[in-house]
Amino acid sequence: MLSPLSYGLYHKVILESGTAASTFADHPFNLLVNGKFNQTVPAIIGMTKNGGGFFVLPFKGISPGVPGIDNGLSKTEFDNLVKGGTNWVYNQTQKVVDATIFEYTDWTNITNPLVLRQKYMDVITDALFKAPAVRSAKVFVKNNLETYFYCFDYFVSPWYPPWSGVFHGADLVYVFGRPFRKYNKSASEAEQSVEITFSKQIISRWSNFAKNGKPSADVNATNWPAYTLKDEQYISLSPSSSSIQKNMLPEKMAFWNSLVPALTETTETQPPSTGTPATMRPTGEKEATCDHDKKTENALIAVVVVLVVLVLVLVAVIWSIRRKQSNALSHTGPTANSTVALTL
């Protein structure tokens, strides 16, 4: 949506747990809030209910997860993960970290490891998915872009613990029809039927949106209204109880979209985080210094320069050899071997 080179290449947009977070001429979020995006196409935007679960679970070949997370977190571990994880927002300050720890600490149950685990997952979900999605949806609507907002509220898996919830990416199981393959062998026929029906509904909504701009399903499905600044309606998607909700987590959204930008003490428009949450239990040690980063940068530049010089030398050598071959051919005439060499 943000690249002018993409204009006319698509007619609908579906943003699943993702917002402006790539590299363009300006920071994508600045392009977004300044209205420098394709405003001619409708959009679906949303996320899974517990996106943060993805970042604490171990996924082979992707992430080690947080060691020992099945047993929860201590208060010290919770604090260290928040401090040592991603930059939750652009131009993050220590005030943001302190405020985040305070906001997400359950002061009535400060030592419960299972509660602290859930709170860390909530930090990730709200900071990286829900708050940016809400902020983006409001920008879309202010620019008269027809927008539909959702929260995916269902996922059943035999491989992941129930406490991980509807984590990031869980919705893809239903968007791409995996229940049709009956992947969950431990589920009963009735449970598999529920999943298949739900997957059909999601596929129908996404397909109809792609065709006519309206995320409708069958006649018995919940009607999905467009997002408005007045009511901030969104649909909570689940097999038996899809429902229309309003004003998602108003206190948490105000924290991330109003208070936190003020705490950064920079410009009014702050791009969202583009980092990755911590998956190791931090020790609190400081990161490498700026001087070290500068030395690393200089070393990389030197390596690049050397490689460029070597490439130029190689090109010159090849050119010289080809020239000699050409001169030799012009005097002796072509042979079978020389013809092959020139072809190669």
UniProtKB/TrEMBL annotation:
Using the UniProt annotation, give all residue ranges assigned to the region (Disordered). 266-291
Q: Which InterPro entries match?
A: AB_hydrolase_fold, CarbesteraseB, Neuroligin/BSAL
The membrane spanning regions, by residue number, are 299-321
The Carboxylesterase type B domain covers which part of the protein? 24-256
Which superkingdom, per the lineage? Eukaryota
Looking at the keywords, is Transmembrane helix present?
A: yes
- Keyword Ribosomal protein assigned to the entry: answer is no
Regions of compositional bias (Polar residues) in chain numbering: 266-277
Keyword set for this entry?
Membrane, Transmembrane, Transmembrane helix
The family classification in the record reads: Belongs to the type-B carboxylesterase/lipase family.
Q: Which PANTHER family match?
A: NEUROLIGIN
Recorded protein name is: Carboxylesterase type B domain-containing protein
Origin organism of this chain? Answer: Desmophyllum pertusum
